Amino acid sequence: MPAQPLVSVILPTFNRADVVCKTIDDVFRQTYKNIELIVIDDGSTDNTQEVLQRYGNRIQLFAQANAGPSAARNWGIELSRGDIIAFQDSDDFWATTKIERQVRLLERAGDSVPCCLCNMLMKNLHGDGKDRYSFDISLLSPPYEDGLWLNVTEVLASRFVMFNQAAAIRREPLEKIGGFDTSLKYLEDYDLSMRLSVEGPWAFITDPLSIWAGGATNSLSREAEEDGIVLSECTLKTLMRAQEEAQRRGDKKVEQQLRGGILSCRRSWNALHIAKSGSWNKRIMEELRSSFYRYRNGAIRRSPWFPRMKTIRIEGFEPDMRRTNPPLSALRS
């Protein structure tokens, strides 16, 4: 890797003229300066194109007919020149040292490490005014501030971990796995991270260097909350593809974990269809069964068999690069 590898930041946007400039300005505040910023306008019908003209050649601006964020990101990957790829959403933010710390950690880790994942601050995640952290939500508790995460696939087989805005990915493994699956309406980042997990251990940083700002009104994350059936179908496709890969590699432990997730997903899909059918007795029975499995799954997460992160330190990492931002200092008002 070059001493100052080029980092391509890919930012898809759709009808967010009111917020996208704040995110672009935030990217320009990064302490790491060898960055190209590629903005993909995914068929906006507001004045996005107009407000982006102010940046001139400071950004690379492209427009496509509306095809969704996965298609926009994939096009951005094709257009990019960077050795490292980072994705940002048009209403979120980064701590100023996010890219610098991830690049330096990847340099120390070596070429066999496909990506670096940082913690993420989730502002007002459930609309209750409380902030949460992605590592806490996913029960990731590494003993070090930064290091190597050895059992990524095993952990991802049991739960989702926030990925896109928190990752910095080497170009070669990203191109090898084929980018985002545009057939998935939701959870395309979960699918990508599952496929990337088999390419080697990941570097991690426990500081929340990425800030999820709560989701805009046209946010897919908010839409997914109200579209449970399609969300379950996307989850099922992701898990079944991962199970096929686990079978191919002969990883019986991961395959067994995925089998349980697939079963739970099918039950959830079935419950949603029954609830939609309007039959009161079926709804009551399904709710009782769903409650049982929720309690059972909660017990499994607390059991000693639930997979935890396996980590090691990366020797020689510069101590003066650590915690250059207090965890909450990157918040935007």
Folded structure, characterized:
By secondary structure, the protein is of the alpha/beta class. The chain has two domains: 7-222, Spore Coat Polysaccharide Biosynthesis Protein SpsA, Chain A (Alpha-Beta Complex); 227-301. Helices cover 42% and strands 17% of the residues. It is built from twelve helices and eleven strands. It has helices spanning 20-28, 48-52, 69-79, 98-109, 134-137, 152-156, 171-177, 188-197, 220-225, 228-249, 252-277, 280-301, and strands spanning 7-13, 35-42, 60-64, 84-87, 93-94, 115-122, 132-133, 146-149, 167-170, 202-212, 311-312. Strands 1, 2, 3, 4, 5, 6, 7, 8, 9, 10 and 11 form an eleven-stranded mixed β-sheet that branches. Strand 2 (35-42), helix 2 (48-52) and strand 3 form a beta-alpha-beta unit. Helix 8 packs parallel to helix 10. The longest helix has 26 residues, at 252-277. The chain is globular and about 55 Å long. It starts with 6 loop residues before the first strand and ends in a 21-residue tail after the last strand.
